[in-house]
Amino acid sequence: MEINSDDLKTFITVIDSGTLSAASVHLGQTTSGVSRALSRLEDKLATSLLTRTTRRMELTEEGQLFLEKARAILSAMEEAEETIRIRRQQPAGRLCVDAASPFMLHCVVPHVAEFRAMYPEIRLELSSNDQIADLIEHRTDIAIRIGALNDSTLHARALTSSPLHVLASPAYLAQHGTPRAPEDLAHHSLLGFVQYELGNQWPLRHAAGNSLTITPSISASSGETLRQLALAGQGIVCLADFMTRADIEAGRLVKVLEADYTGYRQQIHAVYYRNTQLAQRISCFLEFLQQKL
């Protein structure tokens, strides 16, 4: 029997999902069905691709080699399909977009319905990582990154920039008072980032310069978590305009120390590995998102 694309897809999905049960959910099959399909593939190849125990699965040496070839074959098939669809002006295929959860929630999700209506053949996969993710490891086509870029192996497209605001809820300010100068922040509860030191350098003019390094009273890895803490009256926070604009307009959060703001704006880029002959589904998403931003 010959190997077909379904065999390859099943095998890759099992590896990427980590378990047969998780793979069955992605494939819309039963766990036993996925297990049988995997066994049939191994019979076709007359070799074992995985060593399976009750606790874990590991690729054999043959399985590792086959996985690399299988990924390349499916990728080539997707590109061939996309080439034909491009001729018909129908961008298609899987498009995995990764962004920090605040950007995903406030800048991508609200526009998904419109994007899908425009490009119904594109299969969107959205993932959120509040730390910088490896594009290849996470099978990501586009990653949205906020702030300075350090990885020279990536190609980047500038999407927009966003000012930062120092904010607090009216309830917090009523209880603890409003800081009148950056030095007053030392007497307040401050909300900051863990494992992201740049996020704790607030763009405020003060006696020692134009950047104030704060020591958080509460730290979190996600800006969205910090936003929720600020809304709950737990302290003062410094966050991007794109995720707090609606809160400011509704009065849920209030700007403080505006006179001391340096005017710094966070740069927002889309990064990807492809540059020449950029896949049309990637290109159309970037153009669409840039218009929205």
From TrEMBL:
Keywords: DNA-binding, Transcription, Transcription regulation. SUPFAM superfamilies: Periplasmic binding protein-like II, Winged helix' DNA-binding domain. InterPro entries: LysR-type_TF_proteobact-type, LysR_HTH_N, LysR_subst-bd, WH-like_DNA-bd_sf, WH_DNA-bd_sf. One of its GO terms (biological process) is DNA-templated transcription. Residues 3-60 form the HTH lysR-type domain. It holds the Pfam family LysR_substrate. One of its GO terms (molecular function) is DNA-binding transcription factor activity. Belongs to the LysR transcriptional regulatory family. This is LysR family transcriptional regulator. It comes from Duganella guangzhouensis.
